[in-house]
């Protein structure tokens, strides 16, 4: 599957990486072009994140010093996040190595079904937040191999996405967005670029980063934001907006995540906006059946995170997320990585944009092999999931690329 040629070579035209910016220096990328791209994503896809808001308080609810066979400290922290209209409490579950000589780098990601679903540890409080389906303790544990991360010196922090905002249409006023606007305001001022749930969750990740900054055992300069599927879309959007994230990882994030909209396979804008209208801003609906008129495409989201490292993961049976489209994003973002002296998934030798016909001829790496460096990619055998095998690649990527802060 992975190495089949495209249906027709070069049949998509991508927006130019540099757009109208003529100074093509690393500095110009960082200060002019990346902010333009983030702005275009805010205006057309995810909506604008309001400024203001922050963390009001952090309270430790539980702490166990001999978790995971006495290799880790397990803590639950209640973080009070606030906006102009109020505050809400969210719970962060944290594991960090017990014997640390220096603050630990952190893998930070949202979870789908509650912190208790990520571990069979009976001490972790059951989440009372909304869930789509019943979520017994530990039922997502295979997606969260905490012991593996601890063994490699990483801390792992997670928050239930629905504790920030419920994952359903009509929940804006009762979640993070309700900290900024009333339901009546949202209705009255209906703006095409009003932020969606992905924006609200990404805001929550930034608040989690604020909280990490107050914990001396953790290194806030080495936080890798990661996520699976809708939460992988969220991780990329969080990293693009907030320069403090040291690196980003998206797993099977697909449409409106790592995959190119213009590579027409798997989910498209019509499907995603019909099924998940609450994730995006209203302006995004204009592009149903009109991918070619979007002013951006997802390679630019990856490139907007540069020079910070990015890793993209796919699964070969996950056709809905379009693995080939996810890989092609990395190919088309590679020139920007090279601009900063790094290496992406393909060598572009100074090409400003990789032509589609050339990109479509690039073979994907074999199953299980991570290709690239500062921008890297791997594809795993199997379906839509995130497994220990994926985490191994995440940590290889992080080991190789995290800034040396010693
Ligand atoms: C649906 C949706 C995807 C999303 C996925 C998930 O399949 O169509 O866009 O990534 O849910 O979050 O698991």
From TrEMBL:
SUPFAM superfamilies: alpha/beta-Hydrolases. Signal peptide: none annotated. Pfam families: GCE_fung (PF22244). GO terms for molecular function: carboxylic ester hydrolase activity. Keywords: Hydrolase, Serine esterase, Signal. InterPro entries: AB_hydrolase_fold, GCE-like_dom. Residues 194-320 form the 4-O-methyl-glucuronoyl methylesterase-like domain. This is Acetylxylan esterase. It comes from Ruania alkalisoli.
């Amino acid at each position: 599957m992975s190495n089949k040629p495209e249906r027709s070579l070069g049949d998509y035209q991508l927006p130019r990486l540099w757009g109208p910016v003529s100074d093509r220096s690393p500095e110009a990328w960082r200060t002019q072009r990346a902010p333009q791209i983030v702005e275009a994503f805010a205006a057309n896809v995810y909506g604008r994140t309001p400024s203001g808001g922050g963390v009001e308080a952090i309270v430790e609810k539980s702490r166990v010093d001999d978790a995971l066979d006495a290799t880790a400290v397990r803590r639950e922290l209640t973080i009070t996040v606030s906006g102009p209209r109020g505050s809400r409490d969210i719970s962060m579950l944290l594991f960090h190595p017990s014997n640390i000589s220096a603050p630990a780098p952190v893998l930070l990601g949202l979870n789908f079904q509650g912190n208790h679903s990520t571990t069979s540890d009976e001490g972790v409080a059951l989440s009372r937040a909304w869930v789509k389906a019943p979520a017994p303790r530990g039922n997502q544990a295979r997606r969260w191999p905490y012991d593996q991360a601890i063994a490699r010196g990483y801390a792992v922090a997670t928050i239930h996405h629905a504790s920030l905002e419920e994952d359903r249409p009509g929940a804006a006023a009762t979640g993070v967005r309700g900290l900024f606007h009333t339901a009546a305001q949202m209705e009255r001022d209906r703006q095409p670029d009003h932020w969606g749930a992905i924006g609200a969750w990404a805001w929550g990740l930034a608040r989690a980063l604020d909280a990490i900054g107050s914990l001396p055992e953790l290194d806030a300069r080495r936080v890798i934001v990661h996520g699976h599927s809708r939460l992988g879309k969220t991780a990329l959007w969080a990293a693009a907006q907030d320069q403090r994230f040291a690196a980003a990882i998206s797993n099977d994030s697909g449409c409106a995540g790592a995959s190119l909209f213009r590579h027409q396979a798997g989910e498209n804008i019509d499907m995603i906006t019909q099924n998940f209208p609450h994730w995006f801003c209203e302006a995004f609906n204009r592009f149903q059946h009109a991918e070619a008129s979007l002013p951006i495409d997802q390679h630019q989201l990856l490139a907007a995170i540069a020079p910070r490292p990015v890793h993209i993961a796919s699964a070969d049976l996950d056709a809905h997320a379009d693995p080939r489209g996810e890989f092609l994003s990395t190919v088309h973002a590679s020139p920007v990585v090279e601009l900063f002296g790094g290496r992406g998934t393909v060598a572009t030798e100074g090409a400003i944009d990789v032509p589609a016909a050339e990109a479509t001829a690039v073979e994907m790496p074999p199953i299980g092999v991570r290709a690239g460096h500062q921008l890297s990619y791997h594809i795993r055998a199997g379906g839509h999931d995130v497994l220990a095998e994926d985490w191994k690649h995440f940590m290889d990527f992080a080991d190789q690329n995290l800034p040396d802060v010693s």
